[in-house]
Amino acid sequence: MQDLPPLPLRLKPEGFAELFSAIVSQQVSVASANAIWGKLFAAGMTTPEVVAQASEERLRELGLSGQKVRYAHALARANIDYAALQEQPSEDAIKTLTAVSGIGPWTAEIYVMFALGRADVFAPGDLALQEAAKLIFDLLERPKEKEFREMAQNWSPWRSVAARILWAYYKHSKQREGIT
Q1: Alpha-carbon dihedral 17, 19, 23, 25, rounded to 10 degrees
Q2: Does residue 26 share a domain with residue 67?
């Protein structure tokens, strides 16, 4: 892992817009996520009130799939107390978030890691993290999510730092971003 640049902190603001951005980023390339988010941002689709009032047609025009439109509306109507998440243990914050349709473990873990700034959260379902682990540990295939979650326990209480190292390695070795 020589020649890796300094690790970016990647701390992001908490709140609806950041969580919505994480939903937009689900299962699409970084470039696609950035393009879609740019359109949503330019259209002012960054508050729960505006998104809740937006029609399916309008959100689809801005790049969301039908499924992500449903997720966007579910998030906008969920009335999440974002300030309260900051006070909750990471596991509880993840449970609160995954109770909303469209927010799975990956999205919740990414939000808690980056928006809440938690040092001991890991997203074992992230394909870039899995690929980096495969390369670093000379594995025959990417680790499965359950196996990777268990492997990451060894990195506690700094699993978020381990994730940042793995993402940096992925970016360096593959010459592309693994997460926005």
Answers
A1: 80
A2: yes
Q: Using omega within 30 degrees of 0 as the cis cutoff, is the peptide bond preceding 5 cis? A: no
Question: Which of 68, 87, 114 finishes a domain?
Answer: 114
Query: pLDDT tens digit string along 16-75?
Result: 999 999 999 988 888 999 999 999 999 999 999 999 999 999 999 999 999 999 999 999
Q: How many domains does the chain have?
A: 2
Give mean pLDDT, residues 90-94. 98
Q: How far apart are CA 164 and CA 180, in angstroms?
A: 12
Asked whether residue 6 is assigned to any structural domain, the reply reads no
Percentage above 70 pLDDT, the chain:
92
Does the model's pTM come out above 0.90? no
Q: Which domain holds residue 141?
A: 127-174
